[in-house]
């Protein structure tokens, strides 16, 4: 009797062991990865601040945020969104997020005014006025060893290079065409897509136009491009294409039809140097280049059109139809959160925090693994 009991027990243990072995087949995750996979991501609104006017994306200044809106109101907020200082600037409708350079805050307005403020108290250090429409955030760097900033005029595509110390004009470029998307700085050059269907590249030190690459007569570009470390510019067009331009060889590499409508979401680098792109039909695509052509490696459908993408180094945050969704490298959903309908934009703050402006409110959204 005892022998039969022991035999049955041993058989049962062997069966359990075999089931565990077979269930682990094909799972090449390390013990650490397996432990991480068992964690659950939780997204929540940590702090919410109502806003009175349309507000540009916040500028990150140390551990604080600086907001500027379309009425000229500027405020610095601490980590729990309490005001440190606030001012109102005249003839200043701010549609962009501004920039911090050399311990100063630079804001540019739709009226062509550029303000440099002391970020500690909001005092105006200098102001310059141009015959331009500044709706894009300044780019920051240096010219001749001195801190400098570049501003793109939305109305005509002209670029202005200024000394950060006093606002003195270093150079201004020739006009091109209406430029609704932001410019990007890469390897001593400034690049942007234009409403005339071409990508432009300028010398950041001199303002000389180096070249333009036509994408297509109907391929107007109103979104912000992505430039990889290899100098490849990715940008969406009004015809729904994703276009790739090699800024080194100055050639159009490839285009891919992603949407039957416009594709103006900013592409982002994500997951092993691939590029994520979203379209209004609600499809998220992970793309790469193979044999000189852009291809889709994987995609994920959403119920609503994709408004914006942010990658934090491990997760891709997708803003779509009033919902924030975090997806992993397999494009599997880790967590989602209803945040509101009218998204103005979002900024990654670090430490699992996102600053999001939606429905005239500033939200601090926290992600925690549990």
H/I helix tally: 2
Radius of gyration: 25 Å
Low-confidence stretches: 14-27
Q: Note the gap between the termini.
A: 48 Å
Please state the average pLDDT score.
Answer: 90
Described by strand count, sense and barrel closure, the largest sheet is: 4 strands, antiparallel
Gross morphology is: globular
SS class: mainly beta
Helical fraction: under 10%
**Record field, number of beta strands:** 32
Output the strand order for the largest sheet: 1-32-31-30
- Bin the strand percentage: over 45%
What is the topological layout?
Blueprint lengths: L1 H23 L6 H7 L3 E10 L8 E3 L2 E5 L4 E5 L5 E6 L10 E3 L2 E5 L4 E5 L6 E6 L9 E5 L2 E7 L6 E5 L5 E4 L11 E3 L2 E5 L4 E6 L5 E6 L11 E2 L4 E5 L4 E6 L4 E7 L10 E3 L3 E5 L4 E8 L2 E9 L4 E6 L4 E5 L2 E5 L5 E6 L4 E8 L2 E6 L2 E9 L1
Antiparallel strand pairs: 1-32, 2-3, 3-4, 4-5, 6-7, 7-8, 8-9, 10-11, 11-12, 12-13, 14-15, 15-16, 16-17, 18-19, 19-20, 20-21, 22-23, 23-24, 24-25, 26-27, 27-28, 28-29, 30-31, 31-32
Structural notes for this entry:
The chain is mainly beta and 370 residues long. It has two helices and 32 strands. Strands 1-32-31-30 form a four-stranded antiparallel β-sheet, with no helix packed on it. A four-stranded antiparallel β-sheet has the order 2-3-4-5, with no helix packed on it. The two termini are 48 Å apart. 38% of the residues are buried.
